[in-house]
Amino acid sequence: MKRTEIAPGVHLLWDPAPKFNRCRISIHFAFPAKRETATAHALLPLVMERGYADCPDMTQMTKTLARLYGADLTVDARPFGANHNLCVSATGIKDRFALEGEPLTREYAGLALGTAFHPAFVGGVFDPEAVGIEKQMLRKALEDEVNEKRIYCQRQANREFFGDSPAGIRQEGYLEEVDALTPEALTAAYREMLETAQIELLILGCEEAETEQVKDALLRELSAVERRPAPLCGNMAMPRREPARKVECFDTVQAKLCMLFTLGEPMRPDQIAAVRLAMALYGGSVTSRLFLNVRERDHLCYYCASSFQSFTGSMAVNSGVEHADAARAEAAILKELDDLRNGPITDEELEDCRLSLLSGMAGIEDSLGGIETWYYMEVLRGSGLQTPDEARAALRAVTKEDVRAILRQLSLSVSYLLTREEGTADV
Amino acid sequence: MSELRSQALADAAADQWKILPSGLTVLVQPMPGYSGTHVIYATRFGSIDRDFRLNGREVHLPAGVAHFLEHKMFEDQDGDAFAKFAKTGANANAFTSFDRTCYLFTATQQLDESLDVLLGMVGHPYFTEQTIAKEQGIIGQEIKMYDDSADWRLITGLCECLYHSHPIRSDIAGTCESIAEITPKMLYDCCEAFYAPGNMVLAAAGNITMEQILAACERHGLMELRPEERVQRLWAEEPMTLAATEKRIRMPVSKPCFGLGFKETPLAPDDLRSELLYDLILCCVCGGMSPLYRRLYDSGLTNPGFGGEVLRVDGCCCILFTGESDEPDTVKQMLLGEIERVRREGIDREVFTLCKNEKYGQLIENLENVEDSASQMADFALSGQTVVQQIEALAALTADDADAALQHILQPARMAMMYIEPDGTADLPEADDEETEDEE
Q1: Does A98 touch chain B (CB under 8 A)?
Q2: Is A71 near chain B, with CB under 8 Å?
Q3: For the residues of B406-420, what is the DSSP string, one character each?
């Protein structure tokens, strides 16, 4: 993987990845999230994905992608801590599989760049009809959030955990703001993104000459934009607090529990290897304490897993539990954490977890998605471009004390429970 | 599609296929340049296999046995298979569907050792009353998790409407009551009947060779002749009429959800062609390129995920449409109207060709990573086919075939409707705050 700066705030990440059947061209726009434009930026990918100036109609766009053997064109927004990331990506089979010898890669590049830089405008703003339809879709998605209880519980816990901090901006959008969004406001948010974002052009599975052509085409597009790239927010962490316990009632068959912990200070890049092993040991693998003890031995949860978010220095433990067992499950989750901090850790369990992580990391470069996610996360962490092999070497050096040091730093901030009201009968 | 047999495609789909003396079907796709290997050990035994005759004796199972057995297979006299996989660094898992159970792992090192764990655990079942009792609690939790999934309840509700007696009516995991009836004898009977090598497929893709797989099979006695178990699946007669035309339930969802199901004539086990054809018809009738999808999308009548799928297993074939809508009956009428229009006017030729193009791209994509590649090989092999045969079948399909099929499928007389209505609890605007002291 090679990374070069091709203009201020614009980088190219390229890997020819010849073993794959497909290639992928992604343009990432990353910028600090802002409360006032959060809903516009949540709507933006929905409107952009419908079509662009050369192919404004959604159905025609779907047909174009089908003609390219089911190529994917996605416009995807994701939060990374206090930063917002919009990614336009085109993926499809390589030219050598084209049945009629079509130049597929060139078409993917045209789709990705067209979608990113030439939206379907009417009178200088996003097409009001498309905006109106996609506002309905966003509204529906926000209203439907509650249908997926596991995700809903996690989001509600996050809202309590982050409060008014920049990482707490609801990058999925605010329901009460959707109706008032105008095509003009959406267009202004889009233009601001083009001007201020850090841009990463990621090209996987293309040869050098093709890559050069896409890079040059991107630079031509950017020459028409008044660029003033803004620095991204660095890693952050929420301050420690007295744990808040929240309960929300639904008449579900199974209760959901989400517990959020803070590291208390931003995670340093050199801690990442210890964090990975700490999560595998605590709740991120089938050899973890939460899986083996809370799920398998105590039968308190059907799922019970921990995960760490490096940008926000936070750990989440999500579980699905019997309504009556929620308090016991929470106590057991905390006890397992305490046991790892202060009790013995066997060599066997540590090495089992390490081996599992090492094995998983060795397979990262076996998929386009794995490569893109790994290296783009490395870019956002801003600590140099560590390869999976280098990360494996760092992981081999992690000691029990390194793991304990991470776990001891974590303190519970929020415990969010979705359960039914007392006295409600089993379904 | 005349150029389907291009060299690039031939290279990408270059799997190797062998049937061992034990009857086991083995497929390997070496993928140069890849670090990982994905291995699937699959049996044609799923939740619908409830009644069978084994060596002349009838066996009748409660719902959920195949899934229960999948969980128990990870345990033997000398420990938990997950713990053994942990020693090799492999990432292991398993799943059960209506008609198959699959055990799988992904590994980048100690491949031979991981193969030994996989072949050893599936070849040496061990069950006692105590270990069965222990598993009932865990699976009870899993059943409850699915009970809260509106998407899953739509599928199971439609199957209950469409079928009188076919075991597809029952949830894959069964119920807390049905799994309480499971005994060690039942599980051993299932192993004897369905975990015989002749009923199984071993598929591997990635950094692996056929020689490695054969050596592992040799270590586990799979190169030896095995006596063939005399197993006969027993099916109750299933008429083409519906058990019910409609079902309604209430759940904590924010929007009403709906499902429309059409009961179709069951397909022969090796008839992947019809399934593929039905998929293409659905793509033309309500896929992203169809006028119906666009009307529904623009009017906000359904969510973007609205679509149809084919569900087919032995003795059952149905076409299910699911989505969310405030006006499910309006969507139903629009869908029925569009089916009738297409039946009358014929399939749009351009859209049909584009749908075929999409399918072709999907098959190529599935040959790209080790997981999809092994899964695709195993899936087709369980129906006695290869990836290349599937691509050739796709190439041969025409819009005339689709027109002909549409004359007998998706008939309103064989349609049932499932509604999930909000119970009101999902609309609560704010959480009740209950600040308490930390228990630590």
Answers
A1: no
A2: yes
A3: HTTSS-GGGEEEEEE
Annotated catalytic residues of B are 70
Domain annotation covers residue A427: no
Q: A254 to chain B nearest CA, in Å?
A: 6
pLDDT of B138 over the 70 cut: yes
Q: What is the pTM of this model?
A: 0.87
Tell me how far CA of residue B163 lies from CA of A187, B234, B237, B241, B242, in angstroms: 52, 16, 11, 8, 6
User: Are A142 and A10 in a shared domain?
Assistant: yes
- The model's confidence at residue A99, banded by pLDDT at 50, 70 and 90, is confident
Q: Which of A222, A254, A273 is the last residue of a domain?
A: A222
Residue B436 reports pLDDT greater than 60: no
B202, B37 in Cβ contact below 8 A? no
Mean pLDDT within A372-377:
95
Nearest to B141 among A149, A322, A352 (CB): A322
**Minimum Cα–Cα distance from B425: chain A residue:** A250
Question: What is the value of ipTM here, to two decimals?
Answer: 0.84
Same domain membership, residue A367 and residue A267: yes
Q: Does A136 touch chain B (CB under 8 A)?
A: yes
Q: What pLDDT is recorded for position B425?
A: 63
Residues A19 and A89 occupy one common structural domain: yes
Q: What CATH number corresponds to the domain at position A97?
A: 3.30.830.10
Residues of B in contact with A330 (CB under 8 A): 439
CA-CA distance, B264 to B252, in Å (whole number)?
32
Residue B386: pLDDT band (50, 70, 90) is confident
A253/B147 CB distance under 8 A: yes
Residue A189: pLDDT band (50, 70, 90) is very high
pLDDT of residue B434: 29
Q: Is A156 on the interface with B (CB under 8 A)?
A: yes
Residue B439 has pLDDT above 50, yes or no: no
Which among B360, B432, B439 has CB closest to A247? B432
Q: What b/e readout covers A137-161, taking b as 16+ CB neighbours within 10 angstroms?
A: bbbbbbbbbbbbbbebbbbbbbebb
Asked whether residue A154 falls in the same domain as residue A273, the answer is: no
In a shared domain, residues A306 and A204: no
CB–CB of A356 and B434 under 8 A?
Answer: no
Alpha-carbon distance of B431 to B98, in angstroms, equals: 39
Give how many domains chain A has, as a whole number.
Answer: 2
Domain that holds residue A202: 2-222
A65-74, B60-69, B131-140: the lowest-pLDDT one: B131-140
pLDDT of residue B6: 60
pLDDT above 60: residue B427: no
Interface residue of A97, A105, A247 to substitute, partner B, most B CBs within 10 Å: A97
Q: Which two tokens stand for residue B281?
A: 């018809």
For residue A339, how many C-alpha atoms fall within 13 Å in the half-sphere facing its CB? 16
Same domain, A156 and A87: yes
> Does some domain include residue A15?
yes
Q: Do A199 and A276 fall within a single domain? A: no
Last residue of a domain, one of A191, A222, A253: A222
Residue extents of the structural domains in chain B: 7-233, 246-424
CA distances from A31 to A39, A314, B109, B233 (A): 15, 21, 40, 60
What is the side-by-side order of every strand in the sheet holding A2-7? A2-7, A10-15, A198-204, A22-32, A83-93, A72-80
CATH 3.60.20.10 describes domain B7-233: no
User: Which band of pLDDT confidence, cut at 50, 70 and 90, is reported for residue B2?
Assistant: very low
Per CATH, domain B246-424 is 3.30.830.10:
yes
Residue A236 lies in a domain: no
φ, ψ of residue B276 in degrees (nearest 5): -60, -40
For residues A302 and A404, membership in a common domain is answered with yes
A358 touches chain B (CB under 8 A): yes
Size of interface A-B (CB pairs under 8 A): 211
Any domain includes A281: yes
- Establish if A346 touches chain B: CB-CB under 8 angstroms: no
- Domains B7-233 and B246-424 alike in fold: yes
* Beta carbons of A70 and B360 less than 8 Å apart: yes
Cβ atoms A85, A26 nearer than 8 A: no
